[in-house]
Amino acid sequence: MARFVMAIALWLAMPLAASAMEEAKPSSTLLHTAYHREDGAPSGVSFIAQTEDGQLWFSTRTGLYRYDGFDFTRITLRPPGSPRTDATWALYAAKGGDLWVSQANGGAVRLRNGTIQRYDEADGLPANIAIDAFAGDADGRIWANARGVLYRYDGQEWSPAPSSPPDVDDLVEDRQGNLWASSGTQWFVLSPHARAFVASGVHFDKWSYLLEDPSGRLWMLDGKGAAPLPGDWGRPHPHAHARRANSATRFIDRAGALWMVACKSGLCRDGAFSLRGSAFRPWESFKDTNDLPALELSSPAVMTALEDREGNVWLGTKGGVDLLREGALTRINLPAFPLYFSPFEDAQGRMWTGTDNHNPTPDHLWKLSGTPSVLPGFDEGLTMAYPDPRGGIWLGGHGRLWRMNDGKIEETSFPAAKSGAPGVVQAMGRDASGRLWLSVAFQGLYRADTDGSWKPASDELPPGSPMVIHVDHDGTAWFGYADGSLIRAQGDTFRRVLPEPNLEIGAITAIDSVEGCVYVSGEHGFAVIDGDRVERITTSPGGVLEGATGIGTRPDDTIWVNADSGIAWLAHADIQRALLDGSRHVDVNLLTADDGVTDGVQTVRPLPTLVATRDGTLWFARAESLLRLDAGYLPPTPPPPDTVIRSVSSVNQFFPLDDIRLDPAHRDFIVRYAAIAPARPSGVRFRYQMDPGMTIWTSLDRQRELRYTQMHPGEYHLTVEASYDGRHWGRPAEAVLTVVPTFFEGPWFKLLCGVIVALAIWLAHRLRVRGLTRQLRVRLRERYEERERIARELHDTLLQGAQGLVLRFQAIVDRLPETDGGKRSLEQAIDRAERLIVEGRDRVQDLREHVPYAGTLADRLRRYGDDLENLGVQIVTQTRGTPRALDPLAEDELYYIGREALLNVQRHADARSVTIEMIFTSRLFTLVIRDDGKGIDPQSTVGNDGSRHWGLTGIRERARRIGGQADIHPGADKGTELRIGIPSSRAYRRDA
What we know:
Elements: H1 16-21, E1 30-35, E2 47-50, E3 56-60, E4 63-67, E5 72-75, E6 88-93, E7 99-103, E8 108-112, E9 115-119, E10 133-136, E11 142-146, E12 149-153, E13 158-160, E14 168-173, E15 179-183, E16 186-190, E17 198-203, E18 208-212, E19 218-222, E20 225-228, E21 245-246, E22 250-252, E23 258-261, E24 267-270, E25 281-282, E26 302-307, E27 313-317, E28 321-326, E29 330-331, E30 341-345, E31 351-355, E32 365-367, E33 373-374, E34 384-387, E35 393-396, E36 401-405, E37 408-412, E38 424-430, E39 436-441, E40 444-448, E41 454-456, E42 468-471, E43 477-480, E44 486-490, E45 493-498, E46 508-514, E47 517-522, E48 525-530, E49 533-536, E50 538-540, E51 550-553, E52 558-563, E53 566-571, H2 572-580, E54 585-587, E55 589-591, E56 610-612, E57 618-621, E58 626-629, E59 642-650, E60 653-654, E61 660-662, E62 669-676, E63 685-691, E64 698-701, E65 705-708, E66 714-723, E67 733-739, H3 747-815, H4 823-848, H5 851-854, H6 857-870, E68 874-880, H7 888-909, E69 913-920, E70 924-931, H8 950-961, E71 965-970, E72 976-983, ...
Parallel strand pairs: 50-54, 61-67, 68-69
Antiparallel strand pairs: 1-28, 2-3, 2-21, 3-4, 4-5, 6-7, 7-8, 8-9, 10-11, 11-12, 12-13, 14-15, 15-16, 16-17, 18-19, 19-20, 20-25, 22-23, 23-24, 26-27, 27-28, 29-58, 30-31, 31-32, 32-33, 34-35, 35-36, 36-37, 38-39, 39-40, 40-41, 42-43, 43-44, 44-45, 46-47, 47-48, 48-49, 51-52, 52-53, 53-55, ...
Helix pairs in contact: 3-4, 6-7, 7-8
């Protein structure tokens, strides 16, 4: 079987020259995580690859698996219904993000942006032969080794590579763009842009591996040993770190350590490999070298290994997957798993820790400098250790107190309990006046006088025993109590600093000071005291400083906090800036389980749980471990992880992510997403935004799915981001979701509803108009009937009576003699009365005249105009448009309007001719009467002779009654023009 050495494409932005010369970190800092089948991990992993998006891929006999830090997902490569096996073989993460997969029964698959492209014998690959290895050249072509025969993919198709070495064993690509192939006992090289492989002159006996160190130097490892390649290949070459990686059985990591699988212990590491220079190293000098601790791997049979782009090492074994990563902290391994540590530094700079196990494991005092060792003769549980500024170390326990000097321990007096069993030493401190304060749980607070005896503290202090005692650089003593009280003691003056109104941080658990500021951690908050100013500090991530039981500072003024959520650190200058600008908000860096902080913080006792030594080394007492952070080391901030949307599903139906269309039956759906953080998943938090509908980001913390119910129709843009610290966010994942409307929610239904509403409005309008017209007709008919009644009454009473009187007067006049002087006057009066009777009879006739008896409007106006012609006024009638029958009521009003107009012409205009024009259109009926007289002011109601033009007012009123409008204005040449316009709905008869 061919041996597989893939090129290791490294790494993100780290200084190469420095990392190549430094020795790998000791194995005590390595963190190991094993993933078994119970965790969803695949077994029998033969190849591993990391694509440019950061996802890890595992090739197994059961198929291809993907891992993003949260889930191992099996990816089906065969077409639906295909009888082909799911087994895969070689993997290759190519430039540009593609993943190439070799299928066990022949052929290859390319994964690109979620799409699968399959290649087999029809595309130029050999039938039923598995590809052993892939590689890429500087021109972007992909090469494949199938049982010694090289094939090349040019972007379109596969074909056997011309002029390639025979019986190829390994394919290796280096960072300079060279492609190497081993054949027989020598290596061939394809240089960038070259047409064919050429012999490199590098020979070996039986087997050989090409390795590349962090500086870009190529090494050959064979049965004789390890040495750089000759010439330019063996010299360092600066290069950028790659975002992809492929597994191998041997590689040199970014710290210069040599890793090998299939060694005697299954996995070996030579951490000092880079420190031995570039001279030849015999195989025997390092083949069995292994500085790794005993690891409980998922299986001792390690098959392949990969260093990812962050420097973590992944192992594929027969039993699962393993992760080895360098933690920021060193775990102090003590025998018998002790608990409850009380670390301290003595005057000589040596570190010690006591224990208080509360279990059958014996307690010891451990010297931690170098290899941990037990101080003989002391096996008491310690609950407190306090380095006295006057020399020596005070050690406290259960009802006992000791003094340690130069490694010798002597017991001292302990304050007597008032009643019951003695308490437990909680805290200790010596102030500027030399007073020594001692807090004993279940007893109270004591003060040592000059004679060394213990006496209860001042009554001005709260009752009970402080949880924490801290003496700042000015010698001021600070006492923190479980009820949230913080007391400052300066000489014999005691002042309660906390709690303040609206500033309660709960039980005081840790106090420290730097540059005149005092930092206080409580169960529910974190406060800073600067002189007389007390401020509560908020952080991002939120709440990480609450409930801390240890605070310490380094010489660089960084503040370190040992809290249950992890180990936090922040800059003292950042806190000062937050206080100056009034924000009181500080960004905090947090070390979590991914950095080696795998357990909670130690609480209650021993306190404090953080010790900062004089050289800047930090020691942290956790619930189950004692951790060390080396002086000067500042953990790097990991880049924020990218986010990917995994699926959108509803009722067990999954929608394609490039076209998410949710029909009305699938408006309740779930969006699942993940951050690509294979090595650091525990501290990831998410946020999302949905547009439209959301204007701000919504935090999801560690939730990895969104559920939506009864979404309204429309197009939605979903964005999800991931972060470690809540401040820096990785590349977001985006999806467009289209919620398809039902017919009743769609635009056509809305248009139909609009049409129906418009028709309803139009119909209501028509009905309203018809009703008003009917009411108008009823009123007009009532008026006509009233006019007929008045006409009858006038005819039957007034006119008949007047006619009778005239006849009687005429009879009387006839009997008068001709010589009577009054007879002439009476005859004139009778003539005048007869004329009045005739005029009244005409008026009565007008009242009784009605359309059915008077002909059309034109006929009626023409008949009335005949009298004007007799008086010397010529009448001309014209018609435009198709004549239509007029509504009787409207025709009557128009007739009276026309008659009034003609009468005005006869009386006032001095006109020679009058034109009557009737215009019929579909929208409007217009009556126009124009004369050639002397004209009239259309706005005036008073004529030139002083008479009132009541007729003009009546014309306008009559026009308004039938829904029309009357316009009176001077004619074009001279005279006057009257124009009456009436809507067709009011002017024409409906059956016309």
